[in-house]
Amino acid sequence: MEQLPGGRRLRLASSLGLGQRCWEVTLDEERGLLAWRDPRPPRRGADNCFVPTSEIIAVEETEQNKKQRSTGKWQKMAKPHAFTECRPKQLLVYINPYGGKRQGKRIYEQKVAPLFSLASISADVVVTEHANHAKDNLFEVNISKYDGVVCVGGDGMFSEVMHGLIGRMQKDSGIDQNNPKAPLAQCNIRIGIIPAGSTDCVCYSTVGISDPVTSALHIIIGDCQPLDVSSVHHNNTFLKYAVSLLGYGFYGDVLKDSEKKRWMGPMRYDYSGFKTFLSHHYYEGTISFQPAKHTLGSPRDKDSCRTGCCVCKESEQQLAEQRKKCGFKHEEDEDEWKVIKGKFLAINVVNMSCACPRSPKGLSPAAHLADGTADLILVRKCSRFDFLRYLVRHTNRDDQFDFSFVDVYRVKSFQFTSKLSEDNESSVTDIGKKRFGQFCRDHPACCCNIANSTWNCDGETLDSSAIEVRVHCQLMKLFARGIEENCTDEAAYSHSSIEQLL
Ligand SMILES: Nc1ncnc2c1ncn2[C@@H]1O[C@H](COP(=O)(O)OP(=O)(O)OP(=O)(O)O)[C@@H](O)[C@H]1O
Ligand SMILES: CCCCCCCCCCCCC/C=C/[C@@H](O)[C@H](CO)NC(C)=O
Ligand SMILES: [Ca+2]
Questions:
Q1: Could you identify the atom of ligand 2 that is nearest to the CA of residue 356?
Q2: Domains in the chain and their CATH numbers?
Q3: Of 194, 193, 244, 218, whose CA–CA distance to 369 is shortest?
Q4: What is the pLDDT of residue 449?
Q5: Which residues form the DAGKc domain (predicted)?
Q6: Reported ipTM
Q7: In terms of DSSP H, where are the helices of 112-192?
């Protein structure tokens, strides 16, 4: 045991055999760091290595002469979860064997299960047999038995698990999901996402990389990232929850077309994206929204939401104060509504940046994971060339909102009605008008079809075009910590140095 100058810092020092070399290891209790260095480095200035003790997965002992003790097997610590209390011990895992490139089962068995077992985490595994298997199962299981739920798959699979958990929570709390104004019960059981889908947008936007090992490590060390969830209703009927994209027009049409081509795997989005781009359909409708006033950020900010984000922390505090003041009672919201009518190529409402490997900065780079708001992006009717310029900016660093035909607003609630349904509603008895409502009024001669688009809700289609959306601040939690500052693929992979130490 060492005491450093100043007499405050206590360090445990020892040596560790790693391969053929012997390293000097210190445990700095005050800073919570385990550091190791080569006492005789091959070159001068070789770096010291360190890892926060809270990120050590497991500790195993071997004899100095490398023969393992007793049975010859690795020895586990008596208290394997001693490093930090918030680590999960018992997990419920759902694997979609058909998501993405159909690798979910292999990814879990080869990359994730060995790490869980190393960290002494037990897992009950369900390989899904049909769509909604995980969601339905979550309404039946003894959920209190688990410290978290893991989904192995893409955004659709995550959405299923999220619906199961949030739905179960509301049912157990006696909350009617069909009431769009009902304050929802927070879901405290964390979800871990092992990416094995086609877009993996939720994983990428909350971790900074789409990598099963990195995600497994976030689960093991018990990270916690709160997440905003939007509820989507139509005529006082609950439709869905959304955490990433609610897209009408371009992204709705891409999804609808791509669903018929699931056999193509992740490539289906590129194929349908190109086809939809060529079709260049625009849609008329009315958008109403309540601008978010409580938040510190704006969609045109240069800074993005990162680990420990102060904008999200401020929203967390406001949420806690609001709960103190009125509990879970519904508070009448009298904030103003803004109304915009127009012709749109795309209407995107995003709760988070929606970064993914195809669009590394996402559809709204400055959107926050947990600030209680969504960014409403309106892409008005423009030329094909201009729309292409806009789409290309999803893939590079240029400002996506710096176009005369693109507007962006930070909102807390939002409604949409298509012109077609407005016309049909206002003239239900006028059959003639209703019929002509199906044709484009700008080009009566060509009779081009102006049927409604479809809403893309986190990669699932919605049945209704008229929707009412409300953002619920930090309704659920993930095993993640947000994207770390200066996160590069290399930094995200640095977790693997922890594995090497073991
Ligand atoms: N065993 C199963 N058979 C068929 N469909 C399933 C099964 N298990 C889950 N599903 C459904 O498959 C859908 C898509 O799965 P998933 O999200 O994992 O992959 P993806 O669509 O390829 O990826 P992404 O959502 O990232 O684009 C989900 O909506 C889920 O409900
Ligand atoms: C000609 C250039 C075209 C560039 C197109 C860029 C495409 C970027 C795709 C970003 C999609 C991010 C939104 C994520 C949505 C998910 O919820 C959903 C389900 O996984 N995925 C899709 C594609 O709808
Ligand atoms: Ca948000």
A1: 12
A2: 2-80 (no CATH), 81-224+479-502 (3.40.50.10330), 231-473 (2.60.200.40)
A3: 244
A4: 47
A5: 86-236
A6: 0.95
A7: 113-118, 133-138, 155-172
